[in-house]
From TrEMBL:
Database matches in InterPro entries: AKR_Detox_Biosynth, NAD(P)_OxRdtase_dom_sf, NADP_OxRdtase_dom
SUPFAM superfamilies reported in the protein's UniProt record: NAD(P)-linked oxidoreductase
GO cellular component annotations of the record: cytosol
Domain NADP-dependent oxidoreductase: start-end pairs: 17-289
A Pfam cross-reference name: Aldo_ket_red
Protein name as catalogued: Putative oxidoreductase, aldo/keto reductase family protein
Top-level division of the source organism's lineage: Bacteria
């Protein structure tokens, strides 16, 4: 197994693998179990935990905050990421008439304050705009971010699901540290639309959501999933690791230094992700996965 030494923690903010909390409300964990899950992730070297205000219908951050309150020493050992900018229609936000995006100063500040209360912390280590608001004023967003930073409420900023031009527009006004985007052996648009090239050019590692294609990679019965799964399993057998570990290693192989987010209640699943840090796939193996996904050879 080749060692992969190109993915150290990024300035103490992003661990090489991030724990995703999107489905925390579905796990049925009591407070003690949530504390233990966080502790076990930390034991694996995962110090960064990814949230969004909307997760669980605006409930997940509070569940995580209860765990931090129950074990106060945890907060200084981890980094908290949250996202804002999507307005969901749900019981927790009755004033939202329709689902929409909102990057206004009023909404961003209110969202940060709500996240801080829910997470029971005095600062977010990283705040991301969850989706690009087509009506947002980038100068207003930059000024809002700067005010939040000066107040000590948010230490770093980034975006999620932004195109290269949308990222550049805001990055010219205030430094961003990442673009959180989708990438998996079944969803490779980021390899073609310029987002990974931009991240590489700027030296800003992208955060990767849905690295296992939302489970479709191993549960999907479509032709693409079957082709890719067969290659991942074969490579796993060659390298003595699980097919999931190979999938993470495939993502980590890109020179932009991607940071995959793994959102599972099972610590074993998180361990499969961190095991990929010790596997550097040969280029031909990487292209075997690419070819299986695309269904054809490179041109």
């Amino acid at each position: 197994m080749d060692r992969n030494t190109s993915h150290p923690p990024h300035d103490g903010l992003l661990s090489p693998v991030v724990a995703g909390c999107w489905r925390l409300h579905e796990w049925g964990f009591d407070v003690a179990a949530r504390v233990r899950w966080i502790e076990q992730a930390l034991e694996l070297g995962i110090i960064t935990f990814d949230h969004a205000d909307i997760y669980g219908g605006y409930r997940v951050e509070a569940l995580f905050g209860e765990a931090l309150a129950a074990a106060p020493g945890l907060r200084e050992r981890l980094r908290l990421v949250s996202k804002c900018g999507i307005k969901l229609v749900c019981d927790a936000r009755p004033a939202h008439a329709i689902k929409s995006y909102d990057g206004s100063r009023e909404h961003v500040v209110a969202s940060v304050e709500a996240s801080l209360r829910a997470l029971r912390t005095d600062r977010l280590d990283l705040l991301l705009l969850h989706r690009p608001d087509l009506l947002a004023d980038p100068d207003e967003i930059a000024a809002t971010f700067d005010d939040l930073r000066r107040a000590g409420k948010v230490l770093h900023f980034g975006v999620s699901n932004h195109t290269p031009s949308q990222f550049a527009l805001l990055h010219r006004r205030i430094p961003l540290v990442t673009n959180q985007l989708e990438l998996s052996p079944l969803q490779m648009q980021a390899l073609a639309d310029g987002t990974l090239e931009q991240a590489l050019d700027l030296g800003l590692p992208p955060m990767i959501w849905s690295p296992l294609a939302g489970g479709r990679l191993f549960r999907g019965d479509d032709e693409q999933a079957r082709r890719v799964r067969a290659v991942l399993e074969a490579l796993g057998a060659e390298h003595g690791v699980s097919a999931a570990t190979v999938a993470y290693a495939w993502i980590l192989r890109h020179p932009s230094r991607p940071v995959p987010i793994t959102g599972s209640s099972r610590i074993e699943a998180l361990a499969e992700a961190t095991a990929a840090l010790a596997l550097r796939l040969p280029a031909e193996a990487w292209y075997r996965v690419w070819q299986a996904s695309m269904g054809h050879e490179v041109a």
